[in-house]
Amino acid sequence: MRVTVIGAGVTGLVAALELAARGARVDIVERGTQLGAQACGWFAGGMLAPWCEQESAEPHVGRLGQMALDWWPRHFSETVCNGTLVVAPTRDRAELDHFGRRTERFERIGAERIAELEPDLSGRFRQALFFPDEAHLDPRRAVAAIAARLGDMGVTIHFGVDATTVPVAADQVLDCRGFAARDTLDDLRGVRGEMLLVRTRDITLSRPVRLLHPRMPLYVIPRADGLFMIGATMIESDHGGPVTARSAMELLNGAYALHPAFGEAEIVEMGVGIRPAFADNLPRLVRRGHTWHVNGLYRHGFLLAPAMAHQAAQAIFGTSSGEYSCRSS
Amino acid sequence: MNLYGIEVASRLWLGTARYPSPAILSDAVRASGTDIVTVSLRRESGTQRGGQNFWSIIRGLGVRVLPNTAGCHSVKEAVTTAQMARDIFQTSWIKLEVIGEVDTLQPDVFGLVEAANVLCADGFEVFPYTTDDLVVAERLLEAGCRVLMPWGAPIGTGMGLNNIFGLRALRAHFPEVPLIVDAGIGRPSHAAAAMELGYDGVLLNTAVAMAGDPVLMAGAFAKAIEAGRAAFLAQPMESRDIATPSTPLLGKAWLE
Fold first, then answer.
1. Which of A191, A269, A328, B40 could disulfide-pair with A197, CB 3.0 to 4.6 Å?
2. Is the distance from CB of B160 to CB of B185 less than 8 angstroms?
């Protein structure tokens, strides 16, 4: 079977891998000229946090997301399984209680354990929630690794090709264009997310740290080479323009509140991505004519891509049961 | 109640921020039975065009939209945002917020009165978010406001009605002006208390949006507000410090 996947974002790449692994002859077309150039996942946090996400997402996201904790370590060796730490300043302890009520699979820990887990945060927080089973990865390295693996399997990514203008010849088409698919999926909306990449050698973290604050919750994710990703705003807008001063200030303020060393960090990059979301913020596999669409992964691209790719592959190959049978909306 | 010539049935108004998803927001709006929702332009837009999808969801709720100037810290910012809101939502209604203090998000009442003067003169129908200060309320009415929206407590705190005396004084001084408690409501009992004081309505957001089950909570608020309003109309008994038996003692049989 020949399958064309449209879009080389995380959803398209993971889906292509699942299809190729099942024996399909897969081509990927991507309008951008290189990997990540037009993908919102390029600016993602890369947290595989199905339990933390329960704080604001539907239980369904948590169930689908658990598959990512198995999938990513098998396909990307740099996946780090160190859990997630959730902290709050003493005056915002109510936020920690609120977070704990909404989530599960965590340990409530005190200052001593915080210092064991993250020595550089020693003495800064008295209480935290530790989610030991969660993981994280560097999105850019992860998509590069998947793309390389696809290359080994004989899958070509045709860059600079706009699938809306070039006819696609294949038995099946899987559209993973994210927000760009709004031309077909008119109930799709964009949710703007802004992030910063900073570099400092003055602090080391071993896992994503979420700092709760009633007005400005944020996370800081360690990456290789002294880099930290600080994210992310959630603005009901599909405007892709540069990061605003206000958002940058809020993100930097939060990081500074987490640890003053971030005050001296170098700002390496400021980025904006437009997350594709349906009204219920849940992902969907839908068919329009001869084309399957996987879309609406919202802010959970890396978390949900394995489960949605699995659903798509099952649908395309016409099998309905499987180890990870999931509800499709 | 009549607001700037429009008859409004619902006494519960909802803010549209911080819901887990637009779908849950829609369900909560339906469960609340509200016919007025507020929407913030400043933070939700990015640019004037960028927020179209979210706004069309809001318009699709089929209820009246009261745009607000949330997050504005100066008269100029608030006035500009109000003008933008008028273009986007095709309404002269504006919930005017001019924030004066970062930690409490307390209204800057001086800026508020100034902005209300500018906007009323420009044909806006202004719903000012204010404190429970009586003199400020007078100034807002002089500026041309026909509705007042005093706070119960600082935005998002859920502390309820912090100054019952002040709220009662406002009600007593302005018996004819629609008064809506805006901000600080955490639980349905707070909303019922505001309605029992004779307030005309309650606007809230966080208490519903951040509840474990926003849709269930929206329904709970609707019932509390209905109960509080009925209690006000039914003229509650006065409290007293000496017990009064509800069953007469005179003529009671001796069973010894």
1. A269
2. yes
